[in-house]
Amino acid sequence: METPGEKTPQWWQNGIIYQVYPRSFKDGNGDGIGDLNGITEKLDYFSETLGVTAIWLSPFYRSPMADFGYDVADYTDVDPMFGNLADFDRLVEETHKRGLKIIVDWVPNHTSNQHPWFLESKSSKDNPKRDWYVWKDPKPDGSPPNNWVSGFGGSAWEFDPATGQYYEHTFLKEQPDLNWRNPAVVEAMFGTVEFWLKRGVDGFRIDVAQSILKDAEFRDNPLRTDNAVAGHKPMGDYDTQVHLYDGPQEETHGIYRQLRQLIDRYSAEQPRMMVGEIHIFDVVKWAQFYGENLDELHMPFNFGLLKAKWEAQAIRETVDNLEENIPEGAWPNYVLGNHDEPRIASRIGPGMARLAMLLLLTLRGTPTMYYGDELGMQDVKIPADKVQDPWERLTPGMGLGRDPERTPMQWDASPNAGFTGPEVTPWLPVSDIYEQENVAAELAEPGSMLNFTRRLIELRQNSPALLSGSYRAVNGVPVGCFVFLRESSNERFLILLNFSDETATIQLPDLGEGLVVLSTEEEGLAEKVIALDEVRLGPAGGLLVKLAY
Ligand code: NOJ
Ligand code: CA
Predict the structure, then answer these.
(1) What is the pTM of this model?
(2) Same domain, yes or no, for 392 and 422?
(3) What are 202-253's pLDDT values in tens digits?
(4) Cβ atoms 118, 71 nearer than 8 A
(5) CA 135 – CA 159 distance, rounded (Å)
(6) CA dihedral sign, ordered 87, 88, 89, 92
(7) Would the CB of 340 count as within 6 Å of ligand 1?
(8) Residue ranges making up the domain that contains 137
(9) Which of 52, 454, 479, 499 has the fewest C-beta atoms lying within 10 Å of its C-beta?
(10) Does 207 qualify as catalytic in the annotation?
């Protein structure tokens, strides 16, 4: 049973990606904000402690930080808050020395309103860069050109009194959208990709990848009539429309085909990749971003597990649906958390965190882990006077703010969890359970979530079946359970997951017996042989079982 991945596995297929949110990972210079030198200091954590394959860094570019770096004022420099280019070069060198890969964020949809391009564009209607952004005349009554809304609430158009036109912004008004229909923008932005390719990065995570291009005629979006949530979570104003004209446009694919050619030109000696932020839940439409001939993104991020209810049936359907509809040769991937989502341990409850990790790291496809999830880190409640996220500020109390999942990494039990100096005030509060929940404490406790995750990573990274074997769901199991097989030509694993809060009994007499190599139950770290005709799984219990071949 050979999958395409088995034939030519690339590092981004045969590997685990770990997302670092630079502001929150490790403060190297004691100003309360994480930085590049902090990450360099912790590289052994990825390579030795965890054993992941690649790190993805959220933006560290020059930025006024209106959206914490997703508002870029210079795509080819490091913000002084995070360090400088020499620090970055050292980080790349040290990363590669350890056999790790490094993925950087690329933010093509919009720049900062402080980017020199925008300052020029805004300066007059006949500035040569005017058309680098999306400018439109007001309607005759002075109102915005159409009904598009910003992802962070309110109109997507901001009026500029000096030139009498509106500019478009899918997110904050401090994040004007670039005009990707202008070839000069394509050229300049591709130049920024080359800049980082030449500095040795192994890949790019593409922000808002699906909608960098908007409708050429700027038509109004149809209104929704069903009151339903449009994506995977409620988004206020944004949910009132069908995003037909400000969402994915056919022409976007041409841009990614070109970009892929650029990346491929740099891949002969060092295989590089792109993974795009694609919030599309129809697998067929989502998969279009791989490209008809697999010539666009190496992977669109798959957020299906974020949308699915945390129930065995729904999770299985999400996985089966992907497996059935993903084009041949396209490599799957799964995400359970990132800097925009409530932490998984908070969303489903801390008692389910191990089950979630077991699922993520045994499915067929590249897993992306979010920093701290390996510790079971939970959302931190942020007092009103400590709120940082502009989304929370614009929509207070709606639960849309993302600060709770962006709090400092918990390294040890010292003040500020070892994230920054003891006397320093970190940019966001440290979790108040950090004294128990931190890297040092969990490393010392054999049955900890961290040691569970480390063992799981080790098992995955050394198993052909888990890395690139086939996937097959097993029928005839209790409703609250999801059981599947991962098989390669010389190895078979059975994964048993109980999503319910009751004990379940799974009967699979045809499978004989198997060796439990990992269990979510603390004492289960030791290996033992079990008969599969009757397996009891406690609430939120999960097992990874190696079957005889
Ligand atoms: C998606 C990013 O993940 C998010 O953090 C950001 O606010 C928006 N894009 C806008 O750049
Ligand atoms: Ca710092």
Answers:
(1) 0.97
(2) yes
(3) 999 999 999 999 999 999 999 998 877 778 888 888 999 999 999 999 999 9
(4) no
(5) 9
(6) positive
(7) yes
(8) 116-168
(9) 479
(10) yes
